[in-house]
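Today's session is about reading a structure prediction critically. Students often jump straight to the picture, but the first step is always the sequence itself: look for stretches that repeat, for charged clusters, for runs of hydrophobic residues. Only then move on to the predicted structure, which in these notes is written as discrete structure tokens rather than atom positions. Here is the chain we will use throughout the hour.
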Amino acid sequence: MRLTCPVCGERDRREFYYQGDAVALDRPARDADVAAWDDYVHLRDNPSGLRRELWHHEAGCGSWLVVDRNTSTHEVHAVALVEAQG
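Below is the predicted structure for this chain, in token form.
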């Protein structure tokens, strides 16, 4: 799989580090029980299909990217800098 970094251009996926879904998570309250914090830290949905993901160009320019990608086919639909997401 190849990703096109808006700063560096097209690069191999191995230059990037996947950071998870690019969505806000509902953080538990400070006084939430251990089970709520355990769920927040460890449990994530893993649906297939079109997803919005957060990637870090770790072995390149260091940019944070939002990638719209089909997790079933690995087809990349869009890549944008996090700052440009507004």
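Discussion point for the tutorial: The chain has one helix and six strands.
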